Amino acid sequence: MTTPQSKPVSDATLAQLREIPTPTLIDALWVMNWPQAQIHGARPLQTGQRMAGRAVTLRFVHHRPDVLADKPKGEQSPEYVAFELCGPGEVLVASAVGPWESIGGDIKFLRLAQRRIGGLVTDGSVRDTAALKEYGFPVYSFSTTAKQGPAVQQPWGVNEVITCGGIVVRPGDAICGDNDAVVVVPRSAVDEVIRIAHEREATEAVIKKELTKNPGPPGRYYPFNENTKKLVEEYRKRGEA
In the CATH hierarchy, which top-level class contains the domain 11-187? Predict the structure, then answer.
């Protein structure tokens, strides 16, 4: 049986999510009583980025000699296994052990460019940003750094449930980003979030139109209330909504 959690988010659905601002997605999740879903500290490497993709997760752990000894080597190292799961419809979400620790840079992420990945998100930092900007895929990180990562952390878990920037991410969740933030939309909630988001965008457009025509405090209509409902009904009757 296919459930909302097991059904993959389609490329067509990702295209819809990519057009919805992250604040609207947060508002829609709030209406549904979902907890906060913004990955804290994940900031765009470049402005103008828009991103939506299915989560592939990568978990880093603190460095220890025995962890390093036991970690698969070469192409079987966990980060490279995760890379090969990614394509244009996927976003790699990497949880670091600290905000200033590097999860990778130029040479490693060349493979992500080759895979034409949908995006990279981390609560850690990235290196070699000049090269990353040329690679063309959206990158969101806490910061940039010159530090080496392996002295502090090692890649370990692939496609597990992780916590990134204080937010739980399950493999296959929709990961959406723009200039404001990165938001995790649970796979099971995607369709309802889109429906609510479109309703809210339409309502907010009416409010903005009314306040532009008749300037005044937004509190009359925002947050949404009975006045808002009446206003939207009036605009719809006049064919202006």
Answer: alpha beta
